[in-house]
Amino acid sequence: MKKYFFCLAITAALLFPLHAQENAVSPEGETAALPAAGQGIGTETTADSPFEARDDFYQVVSDQGTDDAKALIRELELRFNFYSQVFRYSPYFLEAPLKVRAFKDEASYNAYVSGKLESTRPGAVYLHYDDPALRELVIHRGGAEEKRILPQEAFMQYLRAFVSHPPAWIREGFAVYFSGLRYNDVLGKLEYRENLAWLETVKNLGKNAPSLEWVLLADILGRPDNFQSSAWALVSFFMNNKQESYYRTLGEVFLTMDPYASAEENAQYAAQRITGWVDLERLRNDYQDYLVGRKTYNDLLKNGQDAYHAKDYMTADICFSSALNLRSDHYAPYYYLGLISYQKRDYNTADSYYRLALEKGANTALISYARGLNAASAGKNDEALAQLRQAVLANPQQYQEKADALIKNITDSK
Fold this sequence. Notes:
Layout: H1 2-15, E1 24-25, E2 31-32, E3 52-54, E4 58-62, H2 66-87, E5 98-103, H3 106-116, E6 124-127, E7 136-140, H4 146-162, H5 168-177, E8 181-184, E9 189-192, H6 199-205, H7 212-216, H8 218-221, H9 227-240, H10 244-256, H11 263-277, H12 280-293, H13 297-309, H14 313-326, H15 331-343, H16 347-359, H17 364-377, H18 381-394, H19 396-413
Parallel strand pairs: 4-5, 5-7
Antiparallel strand pairs: 1-2, 3-4, 6-7, 8-9
């Protein structure tokens, strides 16, 4: 099978001759117009400008002033260091500072981007040119799409600063993989949660899924349907695989890519490195096993609920704890972990989980009733009465009868 793969690569190379890309290409493949000489970022402001800030890696201009430019540098530095832990590229090989232009005003942002591309892009866009001095990341600061789009575009700027034309599956697959790397403005730190939005889509492709060879050689053979989701899935497989050989192979792929080669050439280099170290049939099987075994947040919730109703509290605990690792911002795992702790008579832990569920947006009446029942079981009658009455106030139609019965039992026992 491996022999067939290399024949495929050679045939594709003959059909699609390798060539260096001369135009500037945006992440989605649109060609940007080259600016006239002197129009690159930094030419309209100086190092002493009230709108510019610089550090070892970044040069940022913001129409909100130096403070905002410095704040943006702090975030981008954290992202740079995070990406470097995976790719291991040395910043000493940067050919020019990574340039960033930020706009608070949406009209100004749209006008600037549309002047470079045929259309504008919401949130942020990385503009790539073969000349490193002209490349820049453009951001609509505070826009509705900034937090969603910036993680992908900031990664694109990082990767293409070291490898001008990486293979499409690495470029787009990792852009989605790192889209879950969000910046917490309050804490001043990065928080990562893998984006699994396409997991269900990839798992349901079945026979319609593009082959691994096609994904790896998309720059030569053309992009298959569902390419972006398949590229992400392949990256997720390499990054999360427990077999060290896969992660080590991925590291070698990063080092194999040529900073100045075309995407077609780098796709071939990467594919040859992977298949040179890993048997292709084994790779296919392990990849499919990974997809089958990888659970979405909704999968884990459903499995946990089924286990809970079957009174398999150990399995339910594992499912809800795993769901919590994927989404710590949703109330459901906290609520069910509270129910499990209640069943174990660990009333203090149960109450802690219920309070966390309430903080994450759970229904007030539901949590008040659960906390009232929990407090009553723990012998905390005054607290139980207060919580049960709160449940009735919040939703009398659903909780009046049930809460009144418990309140009567508590007051009769005093």
